[in-house]
Amino acid sequence: MVAVxxxxxxxxxxxxxxxxxxxxxxxxxxxPPLRIEEVEVGCRSAGIGCVDCxxxxxxxxxxxxxKHRAARAELDxxxxxxxxxxxxxxxxxxxxxxxxxxxxxxxxxxx
Length: 111
Prior knowledge:
4 helices
C-alpha cells in the first residue's frame, strides 16, 4: 500500500491522472477491461482513492499469483528440476555465444 501513485493527488477527494500512476499501468497489464475503465473513471473523478485502486489491483493479481504459487509448489516437489532447467539454459546460451563469437572472429578476420 506504500507504492507511489499520482503525485498530484494529495487528498482522497483530489481528482487523479491515471496516465502518470504506475498502479494504473499494472492494472492495464493484469486487470480485465471493465476494471481498467472503472479505475480510470474513478481516479479522474476522485470516486476511488489510491488505496481503493491498489486493493482492486490485488484482486486482479490473484489469478497470476496463484499460478506462480502452483509452479513453485511443483518445483518444491521436484528439487532437481531447477538444476535441470539451469543446465538446459546454460547449454542453449553456450550455443548462441559460440555462434556470436564465430561471427565476431570472422568479421575481425581472426583465425
